[in-house]
Design a protein that fits this description.
This protein has helices spanning about 1-50, 55-60, 65-75, 130, 140-150, 170-180, 195-205, 215-220, 225-240, 240-255, 265-295, 315-325, 325-340, 340-345, 375-390, and strands spanning about 80, 85-90, 90-95, 100, 120-125, 155-160, 190-195, 300-305, 350. It is α/β, with parallel strands linked by helices. α5 packs across α15, α6 (about 170-180) runs parallel beside α11 and α11 packs across α13 (about 325-340).
Length: about 400
């Protein structure tokens, strides 16, 4: 009996020791995590205060400081679930960004009393973040600038900016179908694409899929499997921890940037994938044109420019191009295939804008694809000219009564 009690005491002491070690370890981990989170929070706040590259403000926005607030608002945006297309932005009201209850970016419109024609036109514009207006205020996005130009030329138009950050052209076709399904009948639909179709294919290894499609695969039916849900939550906790972030920083300092997993192991694979991107894009154009014949709207398609095609990049643009060096070759493959496509060249509705800024000396790109407000104006002018060719001639502008104080 004494021997049993002695063994029990030793066992309990061992258990106590183990639990003490575990407890101390947990406390140490928690304190370390808290300290790291505090340090990273201070670092992020200081970085956020700097926000935007001063060169960008000076050269791209004539010294105006609103891009700093715009950067903060971009960071504050949040996604919500949207059937079929995965996501849209949650409603947001900022100084430079306004998102309505349907997740659409606000587009400039004239006062109701300023309509100049008997007939009003409905225009629907779809694209990714560049058309959405990343880097621009609400009234200076490409859709807003198109609306202004058409208004100045005597057209009364309602423009819906249905673009979304990260969307590929197939998502936009689905979004168009959903609008038609809901009863909306546009007179003209405009697509502005290129970058997202290209990079998503390179990262996913398949043309036509959405950006970060692998994440959607990983999330599929996750609630139906307790094991997958538990594993996913554990990975999320680990990846969101400050300790994991510290490990990434150390790995970056020691071994350099982590390699981005890209599709295709040979030049032949990449060339085939690039051709698939163009083929899927052409298929989307054909579907939209057929929908237009059925639902009574015209369509225009634009292939967007990127920093790689700028002949004389500014130092800021050169820095941004280097950040995406891993994609330069494949972007060149896709964009080259777009230019060589006989089917696209023969389609009067398709317009290749990839080289529209090739001769520009001033700063145009704030990163690899998003453009300044002044660059948006140039794109909007081209689109507005094309729109005028599609729509019926505007009525002669009626005299506008000028307020007495303004005479």
């Amino acid at each position: 009996m004494r021997m049993f009690l002695a063994r029990l005491v030793r066992f309990l002491r061992a258990v106590q020791t183990v639990w003490s070690i575990i407890g101390v370890t947990i406390v140490a981990i928690v304190l370390t995590e808290a300290a790291l989170r505090l340090a990273f929070a201070v670092k992020d706040r200081l970085a956020s205060a700097a926000g935007v590259d001063p060169r960008l403000i000076r050269e791209g926005y004539a010294g105006e400081t609103w891009p700093i607030q715009h950067d903060r608002e971009l960071r504050a945006l949040a996604d919500r679930w949207e059937p079929y297309v995965y996501f849209r932005q949650k409603p947001f009201a900022g100084e430079t960004i306004t998102i309505d209850a349907d997740g659409k970016r606000r587009t400039w419109a004239p006062p109701d009393s300023a309509g100049r024609t008997a007939k009003g036109y409905k225009l629907l514009m779809l694209g990714g973040s560049t058309l959405w207006g990343y880097g621009a205020r609400d009234d200076r996005t490409i859709p807003s600038l198109v609306a202004r130009r058409l208004h100045e030329r005597g057209y009364r138009v309602e423009i819906r900016n249905l673009a979304e950050i990260g969307y590929v052209s197939t998502q936009e076709v689905v979004a168009l179908v959903r609008e038609l399904q809901a009863g909306y009948r546009p007179d003209l639909v405009i697509f502005y694409d290129g970058v997202n179709d290209t990079t998503s294919a390179l990262l996913e290894g398949e043309a036509g899929v959405t950006t970060n499609e692998r994440n959607r695969r990983a999330e599929f039916n996750i609630l139906q499997s307790p094991g997958r849900l538990g594993g996913s939550l554990l990975m999320r906790v680990v990846r969101d921890s400050a300790s994991f972030r510290l490990a990434q920083v150390i790995a970056h300092r020691v071994g350099g940037p982590a390699a981005i997993p890209l599709a295709g192991s040979s030049a032949t694979d990449r060339k085939t994938l690039a051709s698939d991107v163009v083929r899927r894009y052409r298929a989307n154009l054909e579907m939209v044109e057929k929908l237009g014949r059925e639902y009574g709207f015209d369509a225009l398609f634009y292939w967007q420019p990127v920093v790689f095609d700028k002949g004389a990049p500014t130092p800021v643009e050169a820095d941004e191009a280097r950040k995406l060096e891993w994609a330069r070759g494949f972007v060149g493959e896709v964009y080259g295939s777009i230019r060589e496509s006989g089917e696209l060249r023969a389609d009067r509705r398709f317009h290749d804008l990839s080289r529209v800024f090739s001769g520009s000396k001033e700063l145009v790109f704030i990163d690899y694809c998003h453009t300044t407000e002044s660059a948006n104006e140039r794109v909007a002018a081209i689109i507005a000219d094309d729109v005028v060719k599609v729509l019926s001639p505007a009525a002669t502008p009626s005299p506008v009564e000028v307020p007495r104080a303004a005479r």
